[in-house]
């Protein structure tokens, strides 16, 4: 009888862990990206694209 209870408890714990994992993945996927101006240390795409051109001119 104890093994049946232990199996049931283990099954419930594993099921709840799976639900929490699914919720965590869903939360990450549903997160809206922050605007580029609000982030610190970010580089705009135009700067990255123009970097090789500036390197050729400087070098």
Instruction: Tell me the distance between the termini.
Output: 79 Å
Mean pLDDT: 77
Rounded to the nearest angstrom, the radius of gyration is 25 Å
Biggest pleated sheet: none
H/E element sequence: HH
Uncertain runs: none
User: Percentage of helical residues?
Assistant: over 70%
- Percent in strands: under 5%
**Gross geometry:** rod-shaped
Count of alpha and pi helical runs: 2
Helical/strand content category: mainly alpha
Number of strands: 0
Question: What's a concise summary of this model?
Answer:
This protein is mostly helical and 59 residues long. Helix content is 73%, strand content 0%. The protein has a domain at 1-31.
Features of the shown structure:
59 residues, 73% helix, rod-shaped
